[in-house]
């Protein structure tokens, strides 16, 4: 491809003073308070969480602050959960162009989350360890909430009027027919555990490995059709705020979303998290690691959340779903006035071509291309670019995504079942 045909996507460096001035001119300084609480009880000791309420898009500029909350529910050991906790945030931030305004930053965040999850998985699998982890990763910037998830930890949103919404998708093979079809199409087998006599027991699992989940980070021994590509949902709250409950499956195996939200309404976040855990234990007992984060996004003039009694849902108080609007950062005053939560973005495809877009940043002076996943600059001859054939499957549809280095290209093909030599497993 002629270098002059490639769009120049890499943003130039912008002086710090210019960025700060842009923030002060174009963005509201008034931001909601973010209050949070955490509670956990360990059965196996494989749950980990991340709380970072003081992140800044522009270092030293408090008006660019954002918060990160995450839960990592490990299995087959703790290595993947610990590694992901320590690496994921930096990998996500490295995939966002420098010098972006707040609106540009928020629009780039869903794609950066996909790149960060995949990069973290590639880095962990190089360690040669076999553990895995679910991830529910929440970024809060003002009234905008972005949630990325793999596995079956969950994040719910409880808003004024008692309307509870699920911001994640469970990647359990037992409940997700679309994921079962994807795994089998990519070379895995889905079935229950066979015991002596041919009886099948337990939930649906993927073989090899016997994992109940279709998406995770790690799980090197299971097969790369168990992908780290997250479901991502981004919403904007009204100025009435809302409450997030982020928890591992130890909570959700015992409580429905409505039960969890109702059990702690009107209480401070710290006490609310403890009560959600207590309610789960009362219902089911300590069967699994049980971790809960409660995060309140509160208007600055109401630092203490008011009780939100359950009301009958109506058209004005219900969530707006099904609208993908990358350019809808400018929420209308009418929406905010009636307490509607606006969906800005939602995508759950496991195909990188659909998640990373079709642009590919380049360095005009050096002729190098930047890998959309690992963010390493390489010559185009060393990677995969627009309209080149897949590395392992020349008869398949041409790759129409961004530039990928050779290593990330192999990862893409493996996740799509195009790597030769996938073992055949008899269950």
UniProtKB/TrEMBL annotation:
Alphabetical keyword list: Hydrolase, Magnesium, Manganese, Metal-binding, Protein phosphatase
Any one GO MF annotation of this record: protein serine/threonine phosphatase activity
Cofactor: Mg(2+); Mn(2+)
Pfam families according to UniProt: PP2C (PF00481)
Domain PPM-type phosphatase: 32-297
EC class (word): hydrolase
InterPro entries given in the database record: PP2C, PPM-type-like_dom_sf, PPM-type_phosphatase-like_dom
Its EC number(s): 3.1.3.16
Keyword Magnesium: yes
Catalytic reactions on record: O-phospho-L-seryl-[protein] + H2O = L-seryl-[protein] + phosphate; O-phospho-L-threonyl-[protein] + H2O = L-threonyl-[protein] + phosphate
Family: Belongs to the PP2C family.
This protein's name: protein-serine/threonine phosphatase
Organism: Citrus unshiu (Satsuma mandarin)
